[in-house]
Amino acid sequence: MSPFFQHYASECCGASPSTVGIIFAALPFTSFVATVLLGNSITKVGPRPTLMGGLLLLAGSSLGFGLSASVVWFLVWRVIQGVSSALVYVSISTTMAQTFSDQQEFTYVNGLQEVLGNLGFVVAPALGGILYDWGGFFAPFGVSAVGHVVFVALTAMPKCGSNTQPADQQNKLLDSDAGPLAAASLRDIWSKPVMQMAVAAAILPALFGFFEPLAAIHFTTVLGLPPGSGSGLLLAAPAVSSTLCTVAVPMLVKRHGGVPIIACGLAILGIVCVIFGSTDPSAAAVSGGLMSMQGMSTTSMWGLQIACMLFLGLGSALAWTPVLPQMLANTAELVEESDTAGAAATVFNAAAALGEALGPVCGGLLSSIWGFAGATVIPGLFALGYALTLFTNRPPLQAIQMDSPNLEQQCSIPHPQQKQRICLNTDRETTLQRLVSP
Predict the structure, then answer these.
(1) Is the Cβ–Cβ distance between 213 and 95 less than 8 Å?
(2) CATH number for the domain harbouring residue 74
(3) Measured on CA atoms in the order 360, 195, 101, 38, is the torsion positive or negative?
(4) How many domains does the chain have?
(5) Which domain holds residue 211?
(6) 337 within a domain of the structure (yes/no)
(7) What residues are paired with 431 via a beta bridge?
(8) What is the pTM of this model?
């Protein structure tokens, strides 16, 4: 809704930019609270029922939001959307973490998920703007609700080719010592490396949240582009470049490690945010004329806006894709006798939701003081500072490269229910890697 909501809310109920920021932030902030409060319950109920319930709730709240015309009801429905989003995100992350074993494997699968997610981000802003132009404010949310219901129906369908082998025959394949792993708590995985990854998970959605609600007005100011489908296409550009770059991220992580790639991505995001903010007329007042790019030709300004959008996608691919796999690798080494997938997924999604909530609120406040430039340059400088921190102070727990030529491993037969794999390393201490299937 970013291509048109600020314009619509201003017209229908006189919402200011800071109010629009609060409305944007209501969903992720509620998602953050719900993730923390419901994380253990989601693990107990199971990812699949949680996903279906979350999607149904999201469909209903989307319809309600599309029918609203006041700030109060916008906030009410965004809060409900936040609860439903928490159920959906945690169930997906938990399922992925329980289904794929080592960090390298999970990085590849997480990268594939990011590619598919980015395709949605490519389509959503452009399609939302087109539907808004065609059918008004309700149209994008009505179509979204139908899509959620369809996905619930697909999720409810029975699995094809499910394993019907009796449990007693399956257990013959197991080692006698194999047994269910207890779920780790948030206290069990609380550590400096995990918290560093949590901060990284919060920064990316926060950066986009700082300027995304204001971007349509910025494009109107510097390009003369009206809110709607045109702004939607520009806002979809980061998802295009992120989709293309995400494919290469697993190979980069395998070669250089997760933390350096994350730091590199944050550095790119910080630099681009500073340049992006400098293209707005408000930059001259903020910097005393040092950062002003006014006087550029229309063609050059268009090229610079598109370049900023594309490089934002590059930075987000590098900074975002390795975070959850790296966090899982750190928690697995911290707590070797428990299943850390649920706890890690809870921390990851809570951090991302918190960043997504803080971004629009802080962006609205900064823009009310320093304009669009303040909502982009200041967060960009913060991202650069944190990237430098990661470069100079890497977490002590590093992911083990399972395919290293210097590493001799002997792996026991996987547990068909927990797919627990114990890998013995003749050069280093014994490490435990596990994966719990849904």
Answers:
(1) no
(2) 1.20.1250.20
(3) negative
(4) 1
(5) 5-156+185-392
(6) yes
(7) 423
(8) 0.68
